[in-house]
Amino acid sequence: MKKYVYSILVLLVMTSCSDIIEVQDITDDTVNLVAPLDNANLSITTLTLSWDPVEDATHYQVQIARPDFENILQLERDSTVTDNSVSVQLEAGNSYQWRVRAVNSDYASLYSTYSFTIE
Fold first, then answer.
1. CA distance 85 to 71
2. Which residues lie below 8 Å from residue 92, measured CB to CB, with a gap of 6+?
3. Half-sphere exposure (CA, 13 Å, Cβ side) for 3?
4. SS3 state at 31
5. Given this structure, which CATH class describes domain 24-118?
6. pLDDT (tens digit, 9 = 90+) per residue, 40-79?
7. Which stretches of the chain are assigned E, i.e. beta strand?
8. pLDDT for residue 21
9. Mean pLDDT of all residues in the chain?
């Protein structure tokens, strides 16, 4: 009888833990970039990149390239953050492209990409 009760307890613990360790697939989610707007012309060199949070994401990969990701002269930033914004300082007189993707322990969304110029 004791062995039977123990087996049932183990089975209950295992089935209830599956909800805890199940990771949501976010590969089809889209990161909505908020600021700076796409193709913005800025006159400041210290700015905050921001985006809307993605449900079930635990962190975000943020990249900034100069002038863009197809013709990279310089990868200015490649970092992982847990917030939905990051402050950066960049040089004036350049065009940049930034992108963000949502990530959790098992999945990552596609990158969302915007461009901007600092005059």
1. 25
2. 45, 118, 119
3. 0
4. coil
5. mainly beta
6. 999 999 999 999 999 999 999 999 999 999 999 999 999 9
7. 33-35, 40-42, 46-51, 59-66, 74-81, 85-89, 94-103, 112-118
8. 72
9. 89
Rounded to whole angstroms, how far apart are CA atoms 62 and 66?
A: 14
SS3 113: strand
- 74 vs 9: which has the higher pLDDT: 74
Q: Domain residue spans in the chain? A: 24-118
Contact 50, 57 (CB under 8 A): no
Q: Buried b vs exposed e over 10-49: b needs ≥16 C-beta within 10 Å? A: eeeeeeeeeeeeeeeebeebebebeebeeeeeeeeeebeb
